[in-house]
Amino acid sequence: MYAFCKARPRSPGSSAPDFVVTTARLPRYSAPMRYGQFCPIAKAAEVLAERWMPLVVHELLAGSTRFTDIHRGVPLMSPSLLSHRLRELADAGLVEQRTFGRRHEWHLTEAGQAVGPVIHAMGEWGLKYAQDPLDESDLDVRVLMWNMKRRVNPESFPRERVTVAFEFADMPSSRRYWWLISDHGEIDVCPTDPGFPVDVYLTTDARQWSRCGSARCRSHAQ
Fold first, then answer.
1. Given 94, 129, 164, which residue is the final one in a domain?
2. SS3 for 188?
3. 125 and 179 share a domain?
4. What domain range includes position 84?
5. Are residues 123 and 171 in the same domain?
6. Which end of the chain has fewer beta carbons closer than 10 Å to its terminal beta carbon, N or C?
């Protein structure tokens, strides 16, 4: 899951956040929404307006193809529900599953790629009208760090390994400390101490960091 983390010893007293949620039994999900109308907006909503669906499509548009990577972008979503939503997208013709040996990946079809402007427009609307104020439950540092991993330009760092340590002062101890590593063009984030010398220390809070991320998104959208 974490290229630079899994082989490193964990620091005493540190603990990793739970990224995988297991369930005792496979839950039963309600039948897909049906509006019973020929209206194209209604038909599109039947596919895209299900709970979590826009966020799953956003992860796919951002380049995530493996199940674990998609789940890292929606950590509060149960794996079983994510599997269910991916199957629904496949049934609707928006994604297809490809197999490479033992590895399975999910890829957007032409119809799935065409949803991109819709999802991006939702994001721009959310930045302008739906983010003030943010509730405490909206501040998930796992999502913040995952988005940072995807957005950081490796060319901004030297080729040699660079480690940046983050402390989110408003988070509980299990999610307060994170590390970002750049190593020869590869970027990864770690919820536990990877054991490398730290080059940069940064102390902030999740609310302020989310505002920085939102401002960056807004500047890119303009």
1. 129
2. strand
3. no
4. 50-129
5. no
6. C
Can you tell me the distance from the alpha carbon of 190 to that of 209, in angstroms, rounded to the nearest whole number? 17
User: Is the residue at 123 inside a domain?
Assistant: yes
End-to-end CA distance of the chain: 34
Cβ–Cβ < 8 Å for 57, 112 = yes
Is residue 4 over pLDDT 60?
no
Tokens 């930045």 label which residue?
127
Sheet hosting strand 200-204, strand order edge to edge? 186-190, 177-183, 162-168, 200-204
The distance from CA 66 to its chain's CA centroid, rounded to whole angstroms, is: 12
User: Whole-angstrom Cα distance, residue 147 to residue 55?
Assistant: 13
Residue ranges of alpha helices (H) inside 92-204 are 110-113, 116-129, 141-151, 173-176
**Higher-pLDDT residue of 29, 222:** 29
Are residues 49 and 34 in contact, defined by beta-carbon separation less than 8 angstroms?
Answer: no
pTM of model > 0.85: no
pLDDT (tens digit, 9 = 90+) per residue, 44-79?
Answer: 999 999 999 999 999 999 899 999 999 988 988 999
**Extended strands (E) in the chain:** 95-100, 103-108, 162-168, 177-183, 186-190, 200-204
Residue 191, token pair as written in the block: 């919820």
pLDDT tens per residue across span 125-181: 987 888 666 666 677 888 888 878 877 888 888 889 999 999 998 888 888 899 999
